């Protein structure tokens, strides 16, 4: 397997956020079970403008997770440039249309396949009280576990942190095998097939355990 060099993009456009993404990693680590979900980002309307306290260009986005409809959450997003101080950019109030927001989110494009979205931390499931900012990494194409680790080691914000991994090709394959076995009813089979189920269970538990481990610098 050949891993190409990852170069952090010099800024980006809000147009780069549009479309479908899969969340693959995040910090601070919360109590979670890795799962591969597809989400999407879309601009609410070209007629809805955001006005922020620092007058920086900010766009209102609609976030859709699996099964969510038009009442999905909306939030203002600013694209980070190379000189952007993430903490300062987040702690800015904005008014988009008739809605007032205390904070906005900040997006950083890593390359054509990776995007990091930062926000002020308000995750009740987090096990870290010292981390004021949370970040989630999204990808267009799901990477392998090693590819994802390589990318994270190329990004300063993820390099030395304890990072939760949500999705890789290995986990997606394990999840698919699990669903196939469950649909076939093989989890109820107490014959020789149960060895296959035991092997699958061992594989998925081992993978999740590795995902929760601290990434080596």
Walk me through this protein's architecture:
- It comes from Spodoptera frugiperda (Fall armyworm).
- This is SFRICE_030687.
- The protein has one domain: Beta Barrel (Lipocalin).
- 24% of the residues lie in helices and 26% in strands.
- It contains 5 helices and 11 strands, in the order βββββαβββββααβαα.
- Helix 4 packs antiparallel against helix 5.
| Poorly predicted spans | 1-10, 189-193, 212-217
Task: Please work out how many helical segments DSSP would assign.
Answer: 5
Spatial arrangement of strands, main beta sheet:
1-2-4-5-8-9-10
Shape: globular
The tally of beta strands, per DSSP, is: 11
CATH class: Mainly Beta
How is the CATH topology named? Answer: Lipocalin
The arrangement of helices and strands along the chain is EEEEEHEEEEEHHEHH
- Percent strand equals 25-35%
| Backbone structural class | alpha+beta
Number of domains: 1
**What does the oligomeric state look like here?**
single chain
How big is the Rg?
19 Å
Helix content: 10-25%
What number is the mean pLDDT?
79
Structure described in brief:
This protein is α+β, with helices and mostly antiparallel strands and 217 residues long.
Give the SSE layout.
Elements: E1 19-27, E2 39-43, E3 50-52, E4 59-64, E5 74-79, H1 86-90, E6 94-96, E7 99-101, E8 105-109, E9 114-120, E10 133-139, H2 145-153, H3 156-159, E11 164-165, H4 169-183, H5 194-212
Parallel strand pairs: 5-8
Antiparallel strand pairs: 1-2, 1-10, 1-11, 2-4, 3-6, 4-5, 6-7, 8-9, 9-10
Helix pairs in contact: 4-5
